[in-house]
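Internal ticket - ligand job 545, succinic acid:
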Amino acid sequence: MKEYPHFDVLVIGSGAAGLYAALCLPSSYSVGLITKDKLKTGASKWAQGGIAAAINSDDSPLLHLEDTLKAGAGLCDRAAVEFLVEHGASSIESLVDMGVAFDRHNSKLAMTLEAAHSRPRVLHAADTTGKAIVTTLTEQVLQKPNITVISQALALNLWLNQETGHCQGISLLHQQTISWISSSAVVLATGGGGQVFSQTTNPPVSTGDGVAMAWRSSAIVRDLEFVQFHPTALTKSGAPRFLISEAVRGEGAHLVDREGKRFAFAYHPDGELAPRDIVSRAIFTHLQKTGATNVYLDLRPIPAEKIRYRFPNIIRVCQQYGVDLFNEPIPVAPAAHYWMGGIEVDRMNRTSIPGLYAVGETASTGVHGANRLASNSLLECVVYAAQLSKLEIPSTQFVTEYELINIKEENWSGQTEQIAQMRNDLPMLVWQSAGICRTEEVLKNAISQVQAWHSQLIALPLSKYVSEISPNHQLNFNSAQAELQIRFYTETLNLLDIAYLILSSAVFRTESRGGHYRLDYPQVSSDWQVHTVVKEHSWSTSTLN
Ligand code: FAD
Ligand code: SIN
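stdout (structure tokens):
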């Protein structure tokens, strides 16, 4: 018999939220930082536009608060937003002290404007702000002796104490085994779930694992119908849906149709700098009217020198896919970008399960409401993760002994083909049914299909290794191929779970607000100025805090 490893705290995910959380936890705690790919992989590294904070002399936390509440379309928790904006300046100071090299103008931190901000308050490092932040945080993490990084390791499920309901660790797929790691607290920092949509700016790791795991363990999740569709993702055959940052419009680029007409003003007086949901819907409607597949972003109103200085990565990627943005507009269309909903947490990142915490995009702190203000996400990761410096954990450490079981090499290729088919079809279904415009009938049909796929998936023999394994067993597969197949199975299960949650929440909310637009209920309804709350298979509402 052997004993499982134990950490005081396990942090799952190594984006901005997970890295910053690991750094802020008291250094007297042993911290296991688990990540399913390389340390820096995630949406954070891909962040372009920047991080918002009211630090200029003509700006204030109050103005930042007002802009955030307005973008959130009546669904932000005011106190959560106040906490965010009031800690903006100190969070930036901390990042600068750690070594993040934000762009400067005459030695002062440079700011840009993004949609729905009343002031230029977005700090940036060219158009690779996320990379600059994540690189610095990673360097810091690697220097901390109390943090052990476990990479290429997929968290499968939460481990709850059957008597107390306390979260006491996770099950983990790592180095061809499924085993358990115990801890006094678990922090989920697993990011968003954009991969459930066929058109997304999100990286492949964004499969909604944290929300799916927490929901399966009966944690409260909320506002899952609210998905932000970014208006401008590169739309060229053979190219990924690479984000063309909103900062480009902030610096003066025009959104035009194939006739070269600036059509966004027909939909909102702020034109291309209106809130994202409005610009995305304007593009969607315009495409339907004109029959085109994309619109264009014309950077030529911006001086060439400025483009070179501010957007070197966008220039590079566009060039790679045959677009010379100095001489032609970039073909763009909306894509799923950010998930406002998540695991319900309080100001200390506590979920409804004792011992379980959530930070970053996987959490629902209440700051984004029905629609996130651009560049508030990285700020939320840092401001809320910093709260973990106050984490107190029980001093008890329990020991579970386990038996090692060797699983014989099996031929799983038939199962893998079935999973691959679902993995291919599901995102298209969710894009068509829970994309920019939704209706009850289409959503309900999609739910039936998702439920059918779910039944098929959990009936596969592979399922028992993920869902039914006991903490008294460690499974050893001795095969890299088996490890890949179990990962594929688990991510597909998570995607099916979050598809079910998004679709059902979208049926539940019979109004349109922020990132949730129902063609059959196109108006905002004051009756719906409430959170959508989900526990297991039950949907209800809760008032705003
Ligand atoms: P992520 O950075 O996505 O990290 C999640 C981590 O969890 C990853 O390390 C992943 O590997 C790991 N993980 C997931 N599941 C598991 C599992 N089961 N087991 C182990 N590990 C797991 N926001 C802004 O504020 N400003 C911007 O300029 C901006 N630009 C953006 C540009 C793009 C292209 C995208 C996609 C998003 C952008 N956003 C921006 C949004 C912002 O980047 C994200 O919301 C934020 O980075 C989320 O950080 P996170 O740490 O919560 O998640
Ligand atoms: C962008 O650069 O447009 C993305 C900013 C964000 O998502 O906050």
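Auto-summary: DSSP finds 16 helices and 24 strands in the chain. The first strand starts at residue 2 and ends at 3.
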